[in-house]
Design goal:
The chain is an alpha/beta fold. It is built from twelve helices and 15 strands.
Length: 415
């Protein structure tokens, strides 16, 4: 005789959550800079994260939002991985993978040419599986960060940013002049018709001549090559404040802004700590604070080599740091380190590299996440040498200052 077993139906409380909402809830975990695990090894490219860590982060995020019913939490405490909540969390992770926001790799011991996690097995046989966020996820996080930063400035939307007010469309308030061969035919109809009427009077049909043509002068959008230098020394997560995660978010926002609004520009990212290295934008999310010292000179040297290969109207270095230079690479390759005060050797080598950037036509804008008295004089010297700017800001206002500074330099009047 056939029996049918009935159980209590538990509605899915997360059915209306989209993958984008899940990703936004997980952004603190995905962009972690090492601040939450200050006792781990400090290396720029941290170890891969496991699905179990992602599941715990997702559960914590849902719990903070008050979206997990109390009965599901009690059931999980008693049944563990066999609970309904554990199954629902696995479904959410599968949704992120299916929509292309994360990629999942099985544990090393199980990897083979065709090894892939099977549907419905995310949280069981693949508990130690690794995951990585995709370019699609990075692009989404960059877009959300950019939108939030622009929204905090009172602008909820953005297009092609030609002015400080972030207005979209074609500028129409520039002065007009006579058309010259080679000009873009941005015709000023009013001035053109008025010129013809002044010559022949108001009669139909109007007799338009070549000299009657007037064009409107607009803003010229110059191309720009930017190297974003991120200080990932140990001090970026010390003193009870995470300064590196906001810097990473601003880097993602700037990357998205350039890719979508200024495709003629280029952006390169350089990390500097005991030494310096260039990283691709898609590796930014995995970067954590690195070795202890701050080799600003080596970072500037690498940035200069990158920018000298660029053929752009403007070349600039945007440096985000929170401390004084405390290391320098010697001619024989050894790294001289001194974290106590402003070492004369380190400062002189760093300022010489700033002067070389100035000679190459490279501007340096410094965004300081600290305002120690000993740093003010050093930053002033840097800005005087390279004719750049210095912003003493905080992790909360860094994005607003940096994005506004970038977009203000994007336009100049052609008279």
């Amino acid at each position: 005789m056939k029996y049918i077993k009935y159980g209590k139906h538990v509605a899915d409380p997360f059915a209306n959550l989209s993958a984008e909402e899940l990703l936004q809830m997980l952004q603190d975990f995905l962009l972690d800079s090492g601040f939450l695990d200050s006792y781990s090894a400090f290396y720029p490219m941290g170890s891969e994260d496991t699905l179990e860590q992602l599941r715990r982060a997702l559960m914590q995020a849902l719990e903070q939002e008050g979206m997990i019913p109390d009965d599901l939490l009690k059931e999980m405490l008693s049944e563990g991985e066999n609970s309904k909540l554990s199954e629902l969390l696995d479904r959410l992770l599968e949704r992120l993978a299916e929509e292309g926001y994360i990629t999942i790799e099985p544990p090393v011991a199980e990897r083979g040419p065709l090894a892939r996690p099977r549907a419905g097995q995310v949280g069981k046989s693949n508990a130690q599986a690794r995951f990585e966020i995709t370019d699609k996820a990075l692009d989404f996080l960059g877009f959300k960060t950019l939108k939030d930063l622009l929204g905090s400035l009172g602008k909820s939307s953005f297009g092609r940013h030609d002015t400080r007010e972030l207005a979209t469309g074609v500028e129409s308030d520039g002065s007009s002049r006579q058309y010259e061969f080679g000009d873009t035919l941005n015709l000023d109809a009013n001035a053109t018709l008025l010129s013809a009427i002044q010559r022949h009077g108001l009669r139909l049909p109007l007799d338009l001549d070549y000299n009657d043509l007037h064009v409107r002068q607009c803003e010229y959008q110059s191309s720009c090559a930017t190297v974003l230098m991120l200080d990932c020394s140990h001090s970026m997560i010390l003193y009870g404040e995470d300064r590196f995660t906001p810097a990473k978010r601003v880097a993602l926002a700037l990357s998205h802004l350039i890719r979508t609004q200024y495709p003629g520009d280029s952006l390169h990212m350089v990390l500097f700590h005991d030494s310096a290295e260039e990283i691709p934008p898609n590796a930014l999310a995995r970067v954590k604070v690195g070795p202890y010292y701050t080799n600003t000179c080596e970072g500037l040297r690498l940035a200069e080599r990158i920018l000298t290969r660029q053929r752009k109207d403007m070349r600039q270095i945007v440096m985000i740091t929170d401390g004084k230079p405390s290391a320098v690479t010697l001619p024989d390759g050894r790294i001289y380190k001194n974290a106590f005060g402003l070492d004369p050797l380190v400062v002189s080598e760093t300022l010489q590299e700033v002067a070389r950037c100035r000679q190459s036509g490279i501007m340096i804008n410094t965004f300081m996440l600290a305002s120690d008295y000993s740093l003010v004089n050093f930053v002033q010297k840097v800005t005087e040498i390279c004719h750049g700017k210095a912003y003493f800001t905080t992790p909360y206002t860094l994005g607003q200052y940096l994005l506004m500074d970038y977009m203000q330099k994007k336009t100049k009047h052609i008279h």
